[in-house]
């Protein structure tokens, strides 16, 4: 019927890693805790997930065969994120109705000219010497922590900076052992 607003269509949902809120112009769907498989596990998921602060369960039964979900801590980050080492990483799931595409560009801090910058930061993943591979995520350049975290807990997922090498990457323009940046763009 004429004059009635229909349901929203389109838009894009993305996770802002390392922050509890969304950038200006994006709606917060939920604030969360970054979760993942333990740093030294040979099983479990390869991706980080943004777990809601308050979970909902369907069953009280404990599964016989299972994977484990852990909180994710910033690991060896004080050189770039002072005071954040061993703190658990928050996340925010964001929605913008005016955009339809999200793009994360590694090794860049600016979006293409016709795109909107949602946030910029550092390309992070699990430490290279550990068994458990994780996907690369763009963590905000001004990270926050989960309240009450900060102890060096060994049973956790970890998120570390990614350093460039000159093995297969042209140096220059790449610089050996420099923390790789990233930017999240929408259009």
TrEMBL record:
InterPro entries xrefs: Ca-dependent_lectin
Q: Name one GO cellular component term.
A: extracellular space
Name it: Short-chain collagen C4-like
Species name for this entry?
A: Amphimedon queenslandica
């Amino acid at each position: 019927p004429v004059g009635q607003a229909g349901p929203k269509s389109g838009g894009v949902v993305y996770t802002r890693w390392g922050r509890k809120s969304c950038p200006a112009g994006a709606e917060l769907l939920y604030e969360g805790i970054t979760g993942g498989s333990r740093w030294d596990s040979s099983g479990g998921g390869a991706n980080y997930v943004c777990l809601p602060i308050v979970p909902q369960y369907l069953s009280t039964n404990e599964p016989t065969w299972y994977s484990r979900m852990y909180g994710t801590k910033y690991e060896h980050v004080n050189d770039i994120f002072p005071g954040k080492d061993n703190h658990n990483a928050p996340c925010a799931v964001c929605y913008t109705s005016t955009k339809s595409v999200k793009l994360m560009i590694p090794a860049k801090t600016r979006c293409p000219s016709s795109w909107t910058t949602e946030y910029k930061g550092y390309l992070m993943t699990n430490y290279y010497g550990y068994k458990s591979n994780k996907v690369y995520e763009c963590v905000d350049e001004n990270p926050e922590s989960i309240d009450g975290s900060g102890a060096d807990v060994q049973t956790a997922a970890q998120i570390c900076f990614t350093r460039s090498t000159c093995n297969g990457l042209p140096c220059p323009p790449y610089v050996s052992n420099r923390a790789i940046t990233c930017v999240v763009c929408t259009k």
